[in-house]
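Batch job 17 of 40 flagged for manual review because the log was empty.
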Amino acid sequence: MATNVAAPSREKRRRKANATGTRPRSIGSKIALLIGAFAFLFPFYYMIIGSLQKQPDSSPAGAFPDPGNLSLHNYTAINSAISLGRSLVNSGIFTGGVIICTTVFGLLAGYALARLQFRGRGSTFALVLLVQVVPFQLLMIPLYVLIVRDYGLADSYLGMILPFAINTSAVFIFRQFFLQLPAAMFEAARMDGASELQILFRIAVPLCKPALFSVVLLSFTGPWNEFLWPFLVTKRQDMQPLAVSLANYISTVSSAAANPFGAILAGACVLAAPAVALYIVFQHRFTSTDIDSATKG
């Protein structure tokens, strides 16, 4: 009887010790996460606040400005200087073209490297990995000569899009995802007489939504923020993406502006807003998958 009474007492003490030991760790983890989140988000907060200030304040007190010093004047100033609407359209066309080309070619190449048997498949994949380590700056001069001088595509959307039309990272992502899909699905579809393109678009693509969204987000961020290549191939202001227009504003017009600091931050907010919004909308898609539903039964 004494043993039976002592056992619950020991169990109660053990649970109490675990509870008291877990709570400090939980509170400490939350504090560390809050500090990290603050350090990550503060530059974005300061960028927004700086873009709204009528009078620039670069001191630490500028992070908490007087509400009377806040307005949208900097946005109208940067819009009148570089035409934000036209620059956003150029960035959207450039980025959209890159996303479409990257996704289509990445799907085709990734599926071929993952599910088709052909001579030299391993060497081709090794070449894809090798291309990833070659800096784009190393290819910029021959690309400029080829696209601008030989093809005559200066000051055109096609000239901006072509060097980014095929992304080896997208090929790698799709290949790795298609390798995880059950081989029995593909074999069953082939036995039913489906062509490889039918298998790709009717079976594989609906199952690869997480990889598809990852590729879209990765493909969006690069060209949307790209500066150097559009700067080289576009000399007309009405063809320049927003990143190039902002750089030209900083180097030429900002010195004569009443509040160049605020106008530059306003342009930076406009440039960052689509990328942030796209991530917020689609970030939950990274963890979703429909593979299990396809293999049941």
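Reviewer: the log was empty due to a logging misconfiguration, but the result itself is present. Residues 288-297 have pLDDT under 50 and may be disordered. Unflagging and moving on to job 18.
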